[in-house]
């Protein structure tokens, strides 16, 4: 399940939408200089620029106060040329992630992290949903992986991947199990999975003996090791699974494409072209 071809298609559609809408603006806020965050932000801006969006890259010093950060977000909320705002998490120590995301206007929250959007997803009426889970659902749909009645196992319970993908799978009528670092006997859970989504951030935590034959396996993990970039799933799992997303080139490209799509949705909603923000529109 490569992400590249589908991501290219989504990005081409986004570029068409941007042309049609005239101007679409995406702003990112990065506090401090974490090198991995800088790379992710750069990729997002390259993709936004390629799609013809107006993109704003706010880089703030790690010494910034919570109040100053909230003021920066408030200024972007008030900027009519900005449709989507993304605050790169986690913030440096001393700053409150939750307070920063709560400061984002929910309509512009294209990362789907504001409590309003997270709550709407929990209630089964999703609005802005985080890009990575949306990308995973798009990949599963593209490969016609049956979800209704399927057993889905998610490893990881973060607000940005594990919890939202579990909710989306639940809404697609899968029977969902969420595993985490306190889960006893992970293999007992994963061996039951028709669909296995792995977002633990632990190199090759899922091995061939943990996967049911014919399962669809989505590897979200991005781990920098001495032998290069590896996922959370041993690539040999491809011998057992019906589908496996590669790392790199699987979920990563989809995340960026869906962030752009979310920004177009925010722009449409702000122009009165959608009844609700986000995917519910
Ligand atoms: P977090 O660190 O926020 O969450 C990791 C989750 O995995 C936690 O819920 C944790 O459990 C669980 N976990 C950790 N170790 C184990 C274990 N041994 N067994 C079972 N569960 C475990 O990470 P994210 O969700 O933000 O990201 C996960 C991975 O996905 C990372 O590698 C990240 O780089 C990658 N990522 C990739 C993206 C892409 O576009 N491809 C986008 C976003 C993330 P607990 O809650 O108990 O601590």
Description:
The chain is an alpha/beta fold and 281 residues long. It folds into two domains: 20-105, Leucine Dehydrogenase, chain A, domain 1 (Rossmann fold, 3-Layer(aba) Sandwich), CATH 3.40.50.10860; 131-253, NAD(P)-binding Rossmann-like Domain (Rossmann fold). Helices cover 38% and strands 16% of the residues. It contains nine helices and ten strands. The protein has helices spanning 4-21, 35-50, 66-78, 97-102, 115-122, 131-142, 162-171, 186-190, 251-270, and strands at residues 25-31, 54-60, 84-87, 151-155, 175-179, 195-198, 216-219, 223-225, 228-230, 243-244. It has a five-stranded parallel beta sheet. Strands 2-1-3 form a three-stranded parallel beta sheet, with helices on both faces. Strands 8-9 form a two-stranded antiparallel sheet. It is globular, with a radius of gyration of 18 Å. The model has no long low-confidence stretch (mean pLDDT 97). The site of NADPH dihydro-nicotinamide-adenine-dinucleotide phosphate has 26 residues, from helix 9.
